[in-house]
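job 3f2a | input accepted
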Amino acid sequence: SGMIISFFLSVSSLVSSVKTEVLFDTIAQGEQQYLPYILVALPVCLVSFGFHQNVPSLVKYYDRDSSRVIKSIFFGTAIALFIYILWQLAIQGNLPRTEFGPIIEKGGDIAILLEALTKYIQTGYIGLILKFFAYMAIASSFLGVTLGLFDYIADLFKFDDSVAGRSKTALVTFLPPLFLSLLFPYGFVIAIGYAGLAATIWAAIVPALLAKASRTKFPQRSYTVYGGNFMVYFVVLFGVLNILAQLAMQFGWLPEFKG
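job 3f2a | predicted structure (259 res):
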Protein backbone atom coordinates (compact mmCIF):
# COMPACT_ATOMS: atom_id res chain seq x y z
CA SER A 1 0.00 0.00 0.00
CA GLY A 2 2.91 2.34 0.72
CA MET A 3 4.20 1.89 -2.82
CA ILE A 4 0.76 2.58 -4.32
CA ILE A 5 0.27 5.72 -2.25
CA SER A 6 3.75 7.05 -3.02
CA PHE A 7 3.32 6.33 -6.72
CA PHE A 8 0.03 8.16 -7.08
CA LEU A 9 1.19 11.08 -4.92
CA SER A 10 4.24 11.64 -7.08
CA VAL A 11 2.66 10.86 -10.43
CA SER A 12 -0.42 13.01 -9.81
CA SER A 13 1.85 16.01 -9.28
CA LEU A 14 3.83 15.23 -12.42
CA VAL A 15 0.74 14.58 -14.55
CA SER A 16 -0.70 17.95 -13.57
CA SER A 17 2.33 19.64 -15.15
CA VAL A 18 2.41 17.60 -18.38
CA LYS A 19 3.01 19.69 -21.50
CA THR A 20 1.54 18.36 -24.73
CA GLU A 21 4.40 19.72 -26.83
CA VAL A 22 6.87 17.77 -24.68
CA LEU A 23 4.71 14.66 -24.56
CA PHE A 24 4.27 14.50 -28.33
CA ASP A 25 7.80 15.77 -28.94
CA THR A 26 6.76 18.61 -31.22
CA ILE A 27 9.55 20.91 -30.01
CA ALA A 28 12.41 18.45 -30.45
CA GLN A 29 15.57 19.83 -31.97
CA GLY A 30 17.23 16.50 -32.63
CA GLU A 31 16.02 13.09 -33.66
CA GLN A 32 12.28 12.54 -33.85
CA GLN A 33 12.10 9.06 -35.34
CA TYR A 34 11.72 6.49 -32.58
CA LEU A 35 10.22 3.51 -34.42
CA PRO A 36 13.67 2.01 -35.20
CA TYR A 37 14.18 1.49 -31.46
CA ILE A 38 11.10 -0.68 -30.98
CA LEU A 39 13.00 -3.96 -31.36
CA VAL A 40 15.43 -2.95 -28.62
CA ALA A 41 12.51 -2.58 -26.21
CA LEU A 42 10.99 -6.01 -26.91
CA PRO A 43 13.09 -8.09 -24.45
CA VAL A 44 12.56 -5.55 -21.66
CA CYS A 45 8.81 -5.43 -22.32
CA LEU A 46 8.61 -9.21 -22.25
CA VAL A 47 10.16 -9.29 -18.79
CA SER A 48 8.14 -6.32 -17.53
CA PHE A 49 4.78 -7.72 -18.62
CA GLY A 50 5.61 -11.41 -18.57
CA PHE A 51 3.83 -13.45 -15.94
CA HIS A 52 4.32 -17.07 -16.94
CA GLN A 53 6.77 -17.74 -14.12
CA ASN A 54 3.95 -17.04 -11.67
CA VAL A 55 1.32 -19.24 -13.31
CA PRO A 56 2.24 -22.42 -11.36
CA SER A 57 2.05 -20.45 -8.11
CA LEU A 58 -1.31 -18.95 -9.12
CA VAL A 59 -2.65 -22.37 -10.03
CA LYS A 60 -1.59 -23.65 -6.63
CA TYR A 61 -2.94 -20.58 -4.81
CA TYR A 62 -6.34 -20.73 -6.55
CA ASP A 63 -6.57 -24.50 -6.15
CA ARG A 64 -6.52 -25.17 -9.91
CA ASP A 65 -9.53 -22.93 -10.55
CA SER A 66 -8.76 -21.85 -14.13
CA SER A 67 -11.32 -19.02 -14.20
CA ARG A 68 -9.81 -17.36 -11.12
CA VAL A 69 -6.29 -17.79 -12.49
CA ILE A 70 -7.32 -16.16 -15.78
CA LYS A 71 -8.98 -13.25 -13.97
CA SER A 72 -5.94 -12.67 -11.78
CA ILE A 73 -3.65 -12.63 -14.82
CA PHE A 74 -5.96 -10.37 -16.83
CA PHE A 75 -6.57 -7.82 -14.09
CA GLY A 76 -2.98 -7.96 -12.87
CA THR A 77 -1.67 -7.24 -16.37
CA ALA A 78 -4.26 -4.49 -16.89
CA ILE A 79 -3.25 -2.78 -13.64
CA ALA A 80 0.44 -3.00 -14.57
CA LEU A 81 -0.29 -1.56 -18.02
CA PHE A 82 -2.32 1.31 -16.55
CA ILE A 83 0.47 2.20 -14.12
CA TYR A 84 3.05 1.95 -16.91
CA ILE A 85 1.06 4.30 -19.18
CA LEU A 86 0.56 6.74 -16.31
CA TRP A 87 4.28 6.71 -15.57
CA GLN A 88 5.16 7.29 -19.22
CA LEU A 89 2.70 10.17 -19.35
CA ALA A 90 4.17 11.74 -16.20
CA ILE A 91 7.81 11.46 -17.27
CA GLN A 92 7.67 11.92 -21.03
CA GLY A 93 5.17 14.74 -20.66
CA ASN A 94 7.64 16.74 -18.56
CA LEU A 95 11.07 15.69 -19.76
CA PRO A 96 12.21 16.35 -23.35
CA ARG A 97 13.66 13.36 -25.17
CA THR A 98 17.06 15.02 -25.40
CA GLU A 99 17.39 14.76 -21.61
CA PHE A 100 17.13 10.98 -21.54
CA GLY A 101 20.75 10.37 -22.57
CA PRO A 102 22.36 10.63 -19.09
CA ILE A 103 19.46 8.70 -17.56
CA ILE A 104 19.88 5.82 -20.00
CA GLU A 105 23.64 5.89 -19.46
CA LYS A 106 23.13 5.42 -15.71
CA GLY A 107 20.66 2.59 -16.16
CA GLY A 108 17.57 4.62 -15.27
CA ASP A 109 18.95 5.90 -11.97
CA ILE A 110 16.13 7.76 -10.19
CA ALA A 111 18.56 10.42 -8.88
CA ILE A 112 19.63 11.31 -12.43
CA LEU A 113 15.99 11.37 -13.51
CA LEU A 114 15.08 13.79 -10.72
CA GLU A 115 18.07 15.96 -11.52
CA ALA A 116 16.89 16.22 -15.12
CA LEU A 117 13.30 16.95 -14.07
CA THR A 118 14.35 19.84 -11.82
CA LYS A 119 15.36 21.77 -14.94
CA TYR A 120 11.75 21.87 -16.09
CA ILE A 121 9.51 21.57 -13.03
CA GLN A 122 9.65 22.13 -9.30
CA THR A 123 10.12 18.65 -7.91
CA GLY A 124 10.19 19.51 -4.20
CA TYR A 125 8.70 16.69 -2.17
CA ILE A 126 8.16 14.66 -5.36
CA GLY A 127 11.82 13.69 -5.31
CA LEU A 128 11.62 12.11 -1.89
CA ILE A 129 8.40 10.27 -2.74
CA LEU A 130 9.81 9.02 -6.04
CA LYS A 131 12.92 7.69 -4.33
CA PHE A 132 10.74 5.83 -1.85
CA PHE A 133 8.61 4.50 -4.69
CA ALA A 134 11.68 3.40 -6.66
CA TYR A 135 13.00 1.34 -3.77
CA MET A 136 9.58 -0.16 -3.13
CA ALA A 137 9.13 -0.93 -6.84
CA ILE A 138 12.44 -2.77 -7.00
CA ALA A 139 11.57 -4.73 -3.86
CA SER A 140 8.10 -5.63 -5.11
CA SER A 141 9.35 -6.68 -8.54
CA PHE A 142 12.04 -8.71 -6.82
CA LEU A 143 9.40 -10.51 -4.77
CA GLY A 144 6.92 -10.81 -7.64
CA VAL A 145 9.35 -12.36 -10.08
CA THR A 146 10.72 -14.75 -7.48
CA LEU A 147 7.25 -15.96 -6.50
CA GLY A 148 7.21 -18.54 -9.27
CA LEU A 149 10.91 -19.23 -8.82
CA PHE A 150 10.31 -19.95 -5.14
CA ASP A 151 7.83 -22.74 -5.91
CA TYR A 152 10.02 -24.05 -8.72
CA ILE A 153 13.08 -24.32 -6.47
CA ALA A 154 11.04 -25.95 -3.72
CA ASP A 155 9.84 -28.54 -6.22
CA LEU A 156 13.27 -28.97 -7.82
CA PHE A 157 15.12 -29.58 -4.55
CA LYS A 158 12.19 -31.37 -2.88
CA PHE A 159 11.97 -28.84 -0.05
CA ASP A 160 8.80 -29.37 1.96
CA ASP A 161 6.36 -26.74 3.25
CA SER A 162 7.68 -26.81 6.79
CA VAL A 163 9.37 -23.77 8.31
CA ALA A 164 12.79 -25.31 7.74
CA GLY A 165 11.95 -26.32 4.18
CA ARG A 166 10.59 -22.92 3.20
CA SER A 167 13.55 -21.23 4.88
CA LYS A 168 15.93 -23.24 2.72
CA THR A 169 13.88 -22.40 -0.36
CA ALA A 170 13.98 -18.70 0.54
CA LEU A 171 17.75 -18.74 0.96
CA VAL A 172 18.34 -20.44 -2.40
CA THR A 173 15.83 -18.13 -4.10
CA PHE A 174 16.72 -14.73 -2.70
CA LEU A 175 20.38 -14.73 -1.70
CA PRO A 176 21.97 -14.97 -5.20
CA PRO A 177 20.00 -12.05 -6.74
CA LEU A 178 20.41 -10.02 -3.55
CA PHE A 179 24.17 -10.51 -3.66
CA LEU A 180 24.33 -9.56 -7.35
CA SER A 181 22.17 -6.46 -6.84
CA LEU A 182 24.54 -5.27 -4.12
CA LEU A 183 27.57 -6.08 -6.24
CA PHE A 184 26.20 -4.36 -9.37
CA PRO A 185 23.85 -1.57 -8.19
CA TYR A 186 23.47 -0.11 -11.70
CA GLY A 187 23.16 -3.42 -13.49
CA PHE A 188 19.37 -3.64 -13.34
CA VAL A 189 18.65 -2.54 -16.93
CA ILE A 190 21.46 -4.69 -18.32
CA ALA A 191 20.27 -7.65 -16.28
CA ILE A 192 16.67 -7.22 -17.35
CA GLY A 193 17.82 -7.24 -20.97
CA TYR A 194 19.54 -10.58 -20.48
CA ALA A 195 16.55 -11.74 -18.47
CA GLY A 196 14.48 -10.95 -21.54
CA LEU A 197 16.60 -13.38 -23.54
CA ALA A 198 16.17 -16.14 -20.97
CA ALA A 199 12.53 -15.29 -20.33
CA THR A 200 11.80 -15.64 -24.03
CA ILE A 201 12.58 -19.33 -23.76
CA TRP A 202 10.69 -20.15 -20.56
CA ALA A 203 7.94 -17.52 -20.79
CA ALA A 204 7.12 -17.67 -24.49
CA ILE A 205 8.55 -20.58 -26.46
CA VAL A 206 8.38 -23.36 -23.84
CA PRO A 207 4.80 -22.56 -22.69
CA ALA A 208 3.60 -22.48 -26.29
CA LEU A 209 5.18 -25.85 -27.03
CA LEU A 210 3.82 -27.25 -23.76
CA ALA A 211 0.33 -26.08 -24.73
CA LYS A 212 0.72 -27.76 -28.11
CA ALA A 213 1.87 -31.03 -26.54
CA SER A 214 -0.82 -30.88 -23.86
CA ARG A 215 -3.60 -30.52 -26.42
CA THR A 216 -2.35 -33.62 -28.17
CA LYS A 217 -1.89 -35.67 -25.00
CA PHE A 218 -5.07 -34.53 -23.24
CA PRO A 219 -7.82 -34.05 -25.83
CA GLN A 220 -10.51 -34.09 -23.11
CA ARG A 221 -9.36 -31.03 -21.18
CA SER A 222 -11.38 -28.63 -19.07
CA TYR A 223 -9.79 -25.45 -20.43
CA THR A 224 -8.15 -24.41 -23.71
CA VAL A 225 -6.61 -21.05 -24.55
CA TYR A 226 -8.30 -19.43 -27.52
CA GLY A 227 -6.54 -19.08 -30.86
CA GLY A 228 -5.81 -22.69 -31.69
CA ASN A 229 -2.52 -23.58 -33.34
CA PHE A 230 -2.22 -20.09 -34.78
CA MET A 231 -1.80 -18.62 -31.30
CA VAL A 232 0.79 -21.27 -30.40
CA TYR A 233 2.89 -20.52 -33.48
CA PHE A 234 2.41 -16.77 -33.05
CA VAL A 235 3.81 -16.92 -29.50
CA VAL A 236 6.76 -19.02 -30.68
CA LEU A 237 7.42 -16.53 -33.49
CA PHE A 238 7.24 -13.66 -31.00
CA GLY A 239 9.77 -15.48 -28.83
CA VAL A 240 12.15 -16.00 -31.74
CA LEU A 241 11.83 -12.31 -32.64
CA ASN A 242 12.77 -11.41 -29.06
CA ILE A 243 15.86 -13.62 -29.20
CA LEU A 244 16.95 -12.11 -32.51
CA ALA A 245 16.39 -8.59 -31.15
CA GLN A 246 18.45 -9.31 -28.04
CA LEU A 247 21.32 -10.83 -30.03
CA ALA A 248 21.25 -8.01 -32.57
CA MET A 249 21.36 -5.48 -29.75
CA GLN A 250 24.33 -7.20 -28.12
CA PHE A 251 26.27 -7.20 -31.38
CA GLY A 252 25.42 -3.55 -32.05
CA TRP A 253 23.26 -4.27 -35.07
CA LEU A 254 20.31 -2.29 -33.73
CA PRO A 255 20.25 1.47 -33.16
CA GLU A 256 20.56 2.59 -29.54
CA PHE A 257 18.85 5.76 -28.37
CA LYS A 258 21.35 8.19 -26.84
CA GLY A 259 19.03 11.08 -26.13
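job 3f2a | The radius of gyration is 21 Å.
job 3f2a | closed
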